[in-house]
Amino acid sequence: MDAVSTPASSQILGATHAQSSIAVETLARFHALNWNQCRARGLDELFIARDDPKFLRFCHRKVFVPGVAGLPDLCRRLNVLYPSEARQALQDAVAHFDRYVELFGSPKEVGGRYNCTLIHGDYRLDNMFFESGRTSDLGSNELGTNTSFRSSKADVSGMMKLIDFQLVKESNPEIDLAYFLSQSLDTKTRRSHECEMIRLYYDTLINHGVDAEQYSLIECVHLFQVHHFITSSSIMAAVRSPETLTGPSMHAVRGRELCGAMCSRLFSSLADWNCASAFNACMTAPSGKLSPDEMLALIPVGRRSELGLSGI
């Protein structure tokens, strides 16, 4: 891989603050490219469409239902605490899956309630390579197997190369953001910097053409909470294929370490962000969408202040 430092960063150790800044700004730039324009550009024909019923049924029946059922056993084998808050959040997600599909299955571009764009689908540290050095503006990029982006922030130095685009799809942008922040940073680093990262993501979107009148920071944070549960898909895949974590091979040993880290980090993030309450409130809203005041009330008080939302 030309001009990129190797080996890749270790997701088990977690992303550094600098790596997280580069990754989050890169993600926002990538999402802004096709914000509510996937259908107009024919991308739903090239990748999985958000409202593809076969894909949504597969996720529910083959991934989430057996995954949530088998997660307690996986946590026991990995010696990971499975808190009651996380258990309830994931069980609620399975119970409300049909409603989730009803609310989020249709992109805003074709009359749906929520924004969609082209998302990476597996946006985590193991799929990122970083190079130290002064950065320049992003410039034009074609989506391909390997895509390079450069950060435009003067105080963030580095280049990131992103790989593994096999799960690219038309979907809700907050899924990529929640997946990266909840599982690619160790819990201490996430808690210290996640509000800064969310603001960086949102501000970068707005600076690259997303309309702040149509997409508020409050909505961004609320949907970051709501979509947390779907970020468990990689963990659920491990539940369905336990053989990948069995045995003394280096691959299996690393797989157990990584899966354990992802589980514990996700569970902590679910609790920290009050995700169960946010998800259930969204699923039971009569209109299918909460008001800004209702969304704000579900964001933990301390994080409202860090995000600059306390005075709203």
How would you describe this protein?
This protein has 312 residues and is mostly helical. It has a single domain, classed as Aminoglycoside 3'-phosphotransferase, Chain: A, domain 2 (Alpha-Beta Complex), CATH 3.90.1200. 52% of the residues lie in helices and 6% in strands. The chain is built from 13 helices and 5 strands. The protein has helices spanning 17-33, 43-46, 53-78, 84-95, 97-104, 174-183, 187-207, 217-226, 233-240, 250-272, 275-284, 292-297, 301-307; strands at 117-119, 128-131, 147-150, 159-162, 169-171. The chain has a 3-stranded antiparallel sheet, with helices on one face. Strands 1-5 form a two-stranded antiparallel ribbon. Strand 3 (147-150) and strand 4 (159-162) form a beta hairpin. Mean pLDDT is 86; it is low at 1-7 and 134-158.
